[in-house]
Specification:
- Residues 155-374 form the ATP-grasp domain.
- GO terms for molecular function: ATP binding; metal ion binding; methylcrotonoyl-CoA carboxylase activity.
- Its cofactor is biotin.
- Keywords: ATP-binding, Biotin, Ligase, Nucleotide-binding.
- This is 3-methylcrotonyl-CoA carboxylase alpha subunit.
- By secondary structure, the chain is of the alpha+beta class.
- Among the domains are: 1-134, Rossmann fold; 167-236, ATP-grasp fold, A domain (Dna Ligase, domain 1); 385-473, D-amino Acid Aminotransferase, Chain A, domain 1; 504-648; 659-716, OB fold (Dihydrolipoamide Acetyltransferase, E2P) (Beta Barrel), CATH 2.40.50.
- Helix content is 27%, strand content 26%.
- An 8-stranded antiparallel β-sheet has the order 28-27-26-33-32-31-30-29, with helices on one face. A 5-stranded parallel β-sheet has the order 3-2-1-4-5, sandwiched between helices.
- β12 (276-277) and β13 form a beta hairpin.
- The longest helix has 19 residues, at 504-522.
Amino acid sequence: MVRCLMFHSSAWSSQVNSKPLFKKILISNRGEVACRIIRTARKLGVKTVAIYSDADRESRHVKLADEAYRVGPPPSSESYLNIEAIVELCLLSGAQVSGNHTSRHHAAVHPGWGFLSERAEFAEKLKQAGIAFIGPPTSAIISMGSKSESKEVSRFIMISAGVPCVPGYHGKNQDLDFLMSEANKIGYPVLIKAIKGGGGKGMKIVYEPSEFKSQLQSAQREGEKSFGDGTVLLEKYLLNPRHVEVQMFLPTNFMFRFGDMHGNYVYLFERDCSVQRRHQKIIEEAPAPGLSPEQRIKLGEKAVAAAKAVKYVGAGTVEVSSFILDSNGDFYYMEMNTSRGSVALLPIFADLVQWQLEIASGNPIPLAQAEIPCIGHAFEARIYAENPRRNFLPDVGRLIHVKTPKESESVRVETGAESGDEISVHYDPMIAKLVVHSPKDRTSALTLLHQKLEEYQVVGPSTNIEFLKSLSSHPAFVAGEVETGFIEKHNEQLFPPLPERPPQNALINASIYSASQEIKSRLGTGFVGQTSNPWNTLHGWRVGGQKVSRQYEFSTMLLDSSSPVPSSCSVNMEFGGISDLPSTLNFDIKLPSHEVEGNVSSHQVITYLDADRPTATSASGDTITSIVDGKRDVANVASMGIPWPQWIKLSKAEELDKGVSGNAVQAAMPSKVIKVMVAAGDQVVMRASKDGMVFDVKAQVGSMVKQGEILVLLSWEG
């Protein structure tokens, strides 16, 4: 293993007459993608230029880059998809490339993956401006970037190679009646896809003809909004498929043009991306479980054959979808794009970004196919700000507390977010990718994944961390029985009923936190400026050295449930009286023995209870969140309302009486209002015990709303 790792890291420098790398590159991306590129560029001595929208001004990728420039407002269409602005910034920043080049600008752009990485017009604009594009040529992007054209090209390639393609329609006729007739020919269920879609956007599954029109319109809207093109294609939706991708590495543009191929198109084996929600991957693994050596070689060879046929040069992947593990081992070619996956690279000890920079600078691939090892097994878990128990709806908000596992040769955390950052409604809610590798086998790698998920802590928006723990420990997943419908198939086991009470540790932590903040507030060191914080309302109270008894009652919300657990919990505790503010508070809780540590000037308190690992507690506004590690049989996360003094509770109750409890339609998730279809005075048909009408419409077209924000007020009759 060590020999392979050293060989890959030094292979480039050992080449005779190797060409120098770019001195500076602009990264036309954000978040974990930009951070990942910056990490390798820094290692190679390449300067980096970041771009940011107004929403990302304080983001991690901006801080890590050598330079950073504003590209536009928060919406992607006005910032990270703004081709003209990015080209201008590239020239302005002077991202120079070294070497004997005669181009007027000598600038270079790394698009990352997603956003503009598959936009042919972007690659063409860069070419016209004399800017190097670290990716495939325009012709290949046109052929493979549009899913519709990609299907036609790929169908010919794969059928010629004796590989069947999924039945479907990929033409330009977008008439509703025509598409419905094509769907009937294909046979239901049918998959509708936006031709420029990706990441699950613009994809809809239609099981019955009666659903076709509404699902088509939804896919077209998403395609137009996210990619500027509402054109769709149709495919037969295959039941119980597996989604497998083959990572390739290909020569650079000028190599292809001059025929200097070095005989070295290579594939870097495959990864299984079957387990998905909302058509987006959440866990990947490499190599794909259950494939025979013959299947693995056949997949790789067909991927390279497809790339050669369309002169696809740079660094891209062929995604092989609908790979059904039956007695015949059939698989169907789906599409080609420019994504990449860390999980496929760890077993071969490769840094894809380094390979991209080297090859884009004109250096040949240093390895032949036979020299690329595949050792052990790797997993990648994607950490999202979302609520799995609410159909994985995305969440937004400030990351109050983030603690990641310690990185090593076997553990990598690819993230663009850290404590204090905002998860914005404008972008994908991914927080990080947790990647682990074991040189032994799948079982060892899965054990390591479990351990590192236990160490991952996020306080703020809801996350899928607890769900990933349940998913990766499910018996079917452990056995390698994966498919794209895995979550739906095992829904009951993956979403067991929530416990009635939170872990005792969580209650202890919440109580300690409440006490410490109450003391700080009464000593005049509370959270200044947070008017909604209950501790800011406490005045005139001083501790004079005696012990004070305090009881806290919490209305708890466990894990990521959408409503509080119906029972309240109380903890009796005593804390030592103090006359001035110490750096650490010690508490005696009337519960099992424990230790307490925590700087009272911070927003966190950490406890150690019995043999458990540390528990982190943080607060925002009037909510405390406590994360308990080392507990597999109960919810590991509990959010608790901060206990308000009785006189404050009464005043808040009076305010609530003036509200519209039970008469409001609220936003189910952070979102943008696209259309308002009711007005004040409209009669509404509700599945309720009485009739009503629209009293007031709070929502306005184009406005951004938070989860729980009131959209419409209703009044009941009778």
